[in-house]
Design a protein that fits this description.
This protein has helices at 2-14, 24-35, 49-57, 72-78, 93-99, 119-123, 140-152, 170-176, 190-199, 237-240, 260-275; strands at residues 16-17, 43-47, 61-68, 87-91, 108-113, 131-134, 157-160, 185-187, 203-208, 213-214, 224-228, 245-248. It has 2 domains: 2-113, Ribosomal protein L30/S12 (60s Ribosomal Protein L30, Chain: A); 119-275, 3-Layer(aba) Sandwich (Alpha/beta knot), CATH 3.40.1280.10. By secondary structure, it is α/β, with parallel strands linked by helices.
Length: 276
Amino acid sequence: MKKLSETASAARGRLRRIEGRHNPLVKLLRQAFAGADCTRDGDCAVEGLRIVEEAIRSGLRFRAVFFRESEQDLAERLLPQIGAHVETLLLPSKIFDNAVPSETPQGVAALVHLKEFSLEEILERLQLGPLVVIAGLQDPGNLGTILRSAEAFGGAGVVLGEGTVSLFNAKVVRASAGSIFRVPVIRRKLDAVSSQLRAQEIRLVATSSHKGTPLGEARLTGALAMFIGNEGSGLPRDLMTRMDEVVVIPHAPQVESLNAGVATSILLYEAARQRK
């Protein structure tokens, strides 16, 4: 009991109480959440106990960790796992809730630095599984689901094309359940990416709701890139003409189409099944 008490005391001793909303780190956190973007230094705003624990588990570098005044027990739980050099701030409830977009804040948020990758580094991982290329996906829940499935089924990485929701959207981070910290993700122009992939003889595959090769007959092995389009309009026509194959996932005729996150997850699962 004494040791636990000493640990709790040490954790609380690291907390720096902030009374004003104009503190530079608090402003950074608020702006990163509000803009669904990273800071100038490349730090991403995340919120919630599970997500912060996933960031710790993933070995990310923390810029700062913020605790709600009423949730100091979270500091006792998390601070022993966070480097002593990291700024740890205790915020009054009103200031914390103002900075964090969640309707029901869990009492802990952080600025963390995501790992950076190049397309070349991702292509070196194609022996693990397919690359997912996203064209104009706008629902953050769909993107988070795709990141989670890419990690679950061994995807090489994810390319975000123009018009796609921000990777740093708080709902994307939440829906990824931590996979955002571990799956290689880059943002690129789709025209350039598709040309580069074809030049390296990587097969390009897209999905369709109606016409194409039934999923059970499609070849999803080898160096492969799966192109996923907008929820409503699908892939742009010029991109569709570059595909080597269009795959259809059979489903009940009364269902117009599958959710983009679900369809991508099914393709990734089938690719993993074929590899085995």
